[in-house]
Design goal:
- With 437 residues, the chain is α/β, with parallel strands linked by helices.
- It contains 14 helices and 14 strands.
- α10 links the parallel β8 and β9.
- α4 runs antiparallel to α5.
């Protein structure tokens, strides 16, 4: 389908032309013209009347199937533009939803996309009802007032039904997540801007072959895989990519998917190091805004500068320094900035960063564990290495181990017949039990 794209920028609203064109291509449009304007938003048309006149002439000349705005249009603006241009008008978020519809494969992803689309339609239908009362137009999609009102009721009914189905999916995922924690797994979530290379990184870490393409929003479903980090039990989950100014209705619709970020022990925030610094900065800050909205900025985080094979060492080192400077102000919980090429398997810096972060997670406490004679010390030590970190071992009639252990795994350890003392402080002394009085 042929489309004319429209971008309005201002001091308040900075939009990337390259990203907009990539969105259009990802949705399958043949872009025949891009119209740009730098001005504040016009309340009636979004763009100014003069630029609208120019756009109208282009529509008459080029005969596009749609005119697509990079900006967010109000329902009133969308209607006014349609009335003037006599062609279907879309905005940025309708475009994103179109891409989501093409990429959704699983039942959960399809439900999430449908919910987001219905949430987007509600204000449009309300605007149509308002216009009918003013005698300005027929109802939504050519329906009369009664049909339009009935359609609004149907939308709300369908939204309620989808939310209930997604709640069941969310409950099932919570059961699986708790089981993973009971087995001593560290949960790591991949987050970041769309097309930064998250799926390729998951494949490299887990030695898998999950679909990874050089296009926007390849991943709409969560994918969880196990990978080796020494002897530790680690799971990594790929999540839906972010985009600048991600609207609340998409965040809500994809809540069950994005919850993997909320529940993770460690976040890997992936950026494409081959892009210009201005783009990296914009996408880093956009990702932080989404993480702030998800209330996940307090989690230990590693910024992964991926695709280092596509740029120079000097360039990527400079970008890493700049990210560190930004992080001190915007994301104090960034523990490291590492350089990787998931495609080339260059992951050593990432492994080192994770090995340094994991023992300091809140779920770990220091314990003294006594393995009595006759118990399988090798089995106990192997388990401790997989769910924590052995700090010291004293062999004798009894084997005494000083180790960092996940608190949730204490019951599992006691099944092996070991004796576990109260948690130890940093000096290795037993902490005084809390007095409840």
């Amino acid at each position: 389908m042929k489309a004319i794209g429209v971008i309005r920028t201002s001091r308040r609203e900075r939009l990337s032309r390259d990203e907009f064109e990539e969105l259009l291509r990802s949705a399958g449009y043949d872009v025949i013209e891009i119209v740009e304007q730098n001005r504040e938003e016009h309340p009636r048309y979004n763009i100014g009347p003069g630029k609208l006149k120019e756009l109208k002439a282009l529509v008459e000349e080029l005969k596009p199937d749609k005119v697509i705005f990079a900006n967010r249009l109000t329902p009133s603006q969308a209607y006014n533009l349609w009335k003037e241009l006599k062609v279907e008008v879309m905005d940025r978020w309708q475009l994103v939803l179109e891409i989501f519809e093409k990429r959704a494969h699983s039942k959960e992803a399809k439900l999430q996309v449908e919910l987001a689309s219905l949430q987007y339609e509600v204000p449009l239908v309300k605007e149509a009802i308002r216009r009918i009362k003013l005698g300005d137009r027929a109802g939504f999609k050519g329906m009369g007032e009664y049909q339009t009102r009935q359609y609004l009721k149907h939308i709300r009914y369908r939204m309620g039904k989808i939310r209930k189905e997604l709640e069941r999916v969310r409950a099932d995922r919570e059961v699986k997540r708790k089981r993973r924690e009971e087995l001593g797994f560290i949960l790591i979530a991949l987050a970041g801007y769309t097309n930064a290379g998250k799926s390729t990184l998951l494949n490299a870490l887990a030695r898998e072959n999950v679909e990874a393409r050089n296009q926007m929003f390849t991943t709409l479903d969560t994918t969880t895989r196990r990978f080796k980090l020494g002897r530790k039990r680690v799971l990594v989950t790929d999540t839906v990519g972010f985009i600048d100014n991600l609207p609340p209705f998409i965040v809500e619709a994809f809540h069950s998917t994005l919850e993997e970020i909320v529940k993770a022990d460690v976040l890997l925030l992936v950026l494409d190091s081959s892009e210009p610094w201005g783009e990296i900065r914009r996408k880093f800050l956009a990702s932080l805004r989404v993480l702030r909205e998800l209330k996940s900025l307090d989690k230990p985080m590693v910024v992964v500068l991926n695709k280092i094979d596509l740029t120079s060492e000097e360039d990527v080192n400079d970008k890493a320094e700049r990210i560190l400077e930004l992080s001190r102000e915007m994301a104090p919980n960034v523990r490291a900035v590492v350089k990787t090429s998931a495609k080339m398997g260059l992951l050593d810096d990432l492994y080192c960063a994770l090995e340094g972060i994991i023992p300091g997670l809140p779920k770990y406490r220091r314990f003294r564990i006594t393995i009595p004679p006759g118990s399988d010390a090798g089995k106990v030590l192997g388990l401790l290495e997989s769910i924590g970190e052995v700090l010291n071992v004293s062999y004798g009639e009894e084997t005494v181990v000083d180790a960092l252990v996940q608190v949730g795994m204490i019951k599992e350890l006691t099944k092996l017949g070991v004796v576990i003392e109260h948690p130890l402080d940093e000096a290795g002394e037993a902490e005084e039990p809390e007095n409840d009085e």
